[in-house]
Design brief:
heterodimer; A: mainly alpha; 0% strand; globular; disordered C terminus; B: mainly beta; five-stranded mixed β-sheet; four-stranded mixed β-sheet; 9 strands
């Protein structure tokens, strides 16, 4: 029962923390419970769908469908978070002045709630699909139903408790700081998800540059420990990140954070678009310049290795 | 918002364009049976990308997972999966079958 509970807990935890954070970030929205519930329900249905179609997905894209799907889900979540954060910055001043009115506007179906509903759905979908496959695996290998049920209920309950803990913990922060804290946390979350997406792109062999591990702090905080899991879910902690993951992390913070800053401090209408173009060009340039170089050097290493042998 | 979408698309396209062409890659295979890996130790060359073919002979799904290798992949029952590994520095890289962690354990030794 406990091995079932531990695995379910580990998967539920990430989604639960994201839901807790979303619930705090949308506390002004009257209909948030409805929106978040829609996200969770949609995610669960999607998870069952993905688990059912696992064979098809795994055989897609020359056997790399699973990695690519994960990368796509994570990238979509990053986009939703960026969208939300920038929109909120844009309306930050109005929010401070007419909190209620904005709450009204959001509940009437403006995009930010859609964005966070999608985020919740995607988080539940990704973690849920694994839980469904795991529970099926348990069931099919003859584990008694009572054991599976009690294990998953326990794992789910403990995971949800962590999500609730984050929610109530954040609500203790004075209201005037809370908006800043939640948008910073959502920004870190998006960077962490982008780094995870990079990991899946490496696994799918789509990216093969800068895959060297930069450091390893698993002796301090293992990703499999509870603290490691929480940090992984919230700020994208990776005990032994690859170079490309750090690049994705920093690029996400720079792009979304930069756009948030630009929205709040408009340099002037005239300069806004050029500034965005420069950011995009810099990013594209960095990818172009770094890739062949790193390709070259890794080939070089491989050649040296062969010669040495 | 459009700008974000565009910048992400540009990045994706560029990265996809970088996707390595299918080179002749050394292959290593292992099987999962009764929730155990066989062989439990696979030795691969250093600084080289290799192809790991994991055949799951059990009727139930299993998840190949390794924190140190940055890999996690669900392998359906009675099917197989390809996992690219490397290039890596010499060392020992443990992996597990996450769905049956107590029995499904193994390691990749890079020499």
């Amino acid at each position: 029962m406990f091995s079932t509970a531990i695995l379910v807990f580990r998967e539920v935890l990430e989604a639960a923390l994201i839901i807790g954070l979303v619930a705090v970030a949308t506390r002004e929205v009257a209909s948030r419970v409805k929106w978040i519930s829609v996200g969770i329900l949609g995610g669960i249905l999607g998870a069952i769908g993905i688990a059912t179609m696992a064979d098809v997905i795994n055989n897609a894209a020359a056997g790399l469908g699973q990695e690519l799907l994960n990368a796509m889900i994570l990238s979509a979540a990053v986009l939703m978070l960026g969208w939300h954060n920038i929109w909120m910055k844009k309306h930050g001043k109005e929010l401070a002045m007419h909190a209620k009115q904005i709450g009204q506007a959001v509940s009437e179906g403006q995009q930010p709630m859609y964005a966070l509903t999608m985020l919740v759905g995607l988080a539940v979908l990704r973690e849920g699909a694994e839980v469904v496959l795991f529970l099926y695996s348990m069931f099919a290998s003859g584990t008694p139903m009572a054991q599976i049920t009690s294990g998953s209920v326990l794992g789910l309950a403990v995971g949800a408790a962590f999500g609730a803990g984050l929610y109530f913990g954040l609500l203790r922060i004075p209201t005037r700081y809370l908006f800043r804290v939640t948008s910073l946390m959502l920004l870190m979350l998006s960077a962490g998800l982008a780094a995870q997406a990079a990991g899946f792109l490496v696994q799918a062999n789509v990216i093969s540059v800068m895959t060297t591990t930069l450091w390893d702090t698993s002796w301090l905080i293992s990703e499999r420990s509870i603290m490691g899991n929480i940090l992984h879910a919230l700020i994208g902690y990776i005990a032994n990140p690859m170079g490309i993951q750090l690049i994705f992390y920093i690029a996400t913070i720079t792009i979304i954070g930069g756009l948030m800053w630009l929205v709040e401090h408009p340099i002037s209408q005239r300069l806004f678009k050029p500034a965005v173009v420069v950011i995009v060009m810099l990013l594209a340039g960095a990818v172009l310049v770094l890739s062949p170089k790193f390709h070259g050097s890794s080939n070089h290493v491989a050649t040296l290795q062969i010669n040495a042998n | 918002m459009k700008q974000i979408v565009i910048s992400f698309s540009v990045a994706t396209v560029l990265l996809l364009a970088q996707a390595s062409t299918a080179l002749a890659m050394e292959e290593f295979s292992l099987t999962i049976k009764n929730h155990q890996f066989s062989p439990e130790t696979v030795t691969i060359p250093a600084n080289t990308k290799v192809k790991l073919i994991v055949k799951n002979l059990d009727p139930t799904p299993e998840e190949f997972e390794s924190e140190k290798l940055h890999r996690e992949k669900v392998i359906q029952g009675k099917s197989q999966a390809v996992i690219f590994v490397g290039p890596l520095n010499p060392g020992t890289y443990p992996f597990i079958g996450e769905f049956h962690e107590s029995t499904a354990k193994g390691q990749i030794i890079v020499k």
